[in-house]
Amino acid sequence: MRILCSRSFPQLCATFDAYLNNSKNDIEQAIKKEMSGNLENACLALVRAARNRHAYIANELHESMVGLGTRDSDLIRLLVSNSEVYNLLCF
User: Which of these, 48, 8, 14, 55, lies nearest to 31 by C-alpha position?
Assistant: First the structure.
């Protein structure tokens, strides 16, 4: 957990690659095997965001709007917290 929270995304990606080379499991598979609940969700979110931040945000936006109605609080949180990413994509 300390590594996931204290390293840059490029360094995390290198760590994930090294983990895959030294283990028979991908880091996401290992997290799913060893953790559960909110801790598992948080760690998986960090891994997915480190691997491809834009795809992670797009997936989270989609999930907040899929089905009947929207999860307004999730949608607002995503838009506000990632506003600098959206500005970069528009220019």
Answer: 48
